[in-house]
Amino acid sequence: MYNFLIGGDGLIYEGRGWLVAQHLYGWDSFILGVAFIGHFDDECPTLLQQAALTNFLQFGVQIGRLFDNYSVIGACALIDAPASPGPGQCFLAELRSWHNYWDDAHTNGACPALAARRPPQAAQPHGGNAGAY
């Protein structure tokens, strides 16, 4: 289950909250999982959803739940793509343009199926989740 979900109307729904991640085995102590509600291969999340994510991440930094140098990445780059299609190819293209996108995979197309990914060296276990995607 994700920490937070963002609806098409831009509202943010709490899943597991800030302190507990449990949706990407092996990464849970390093990430904050935020999902858009919808399917985004052909269409991107709404502008309301995208703005909500940006504001939410800034809020996370302000309240000390995210480091100010956090990175974002699609779940599909961390685990096998068929198991996690997120964030969808449309939004993945947008996400890759963000200044804080962690592109350890150095891919330009679809998220690859990666069997053994490791957290970035700068990652540290969270004290309320240190990173986000």
Tell me what you see in this structure.
This protein is α+β, with helices and mostly antiparallel strands and 133 residues long. Helices cover 17% and strands 7% of the residues. It has 2 helices and 3 strands. It has helices at 47-62, 89-95, and strands at residues 4-6, 12-14, 34-36. The protein has a 3-stranded mixed β-sheet, with helices on one face. Strand 1 (4-6) and strand 2 form a beta hairpin. It is globular. The model is unreliable at 106-110 and 113-133 (pLDDT under 50).
Write the layout of secondary structure elements.
Layout: E1 4-6, E2 12-14, E3 34-36, H1 47-62, H2 89-95
Parallel strand pairs: 1-3
Antiparallel strand pairs: 1-2
Shape: globular
The helix-and-strand class reads: alpha+beta
How big a fraction of the residues is strand? 5-15%
H and E string: EEEHH
Report strand order across the widest sheet.
2-1-3
GO molecular function: N-acetylmuramoyl-L-alanine amidase activity; zinc ion binding
Keywords: Immunity, Innate immunity
Domain Peptidoglycan recognition protein family: 1-79
Family: Belongs to the N-acetylmuramoyl-L-alanine amidase 2 family.
In short:
The chain is built from 2 helices and 3 strands; from the N terminus they run βββαα. The chain has helices at 47-62, 89-95, and strands at residues 4-6, 12-14, 34-36. InterPro entries: Amidase/PGRP_sf, Amidase_domain, PGRP, PGRP_domain_met/bac.
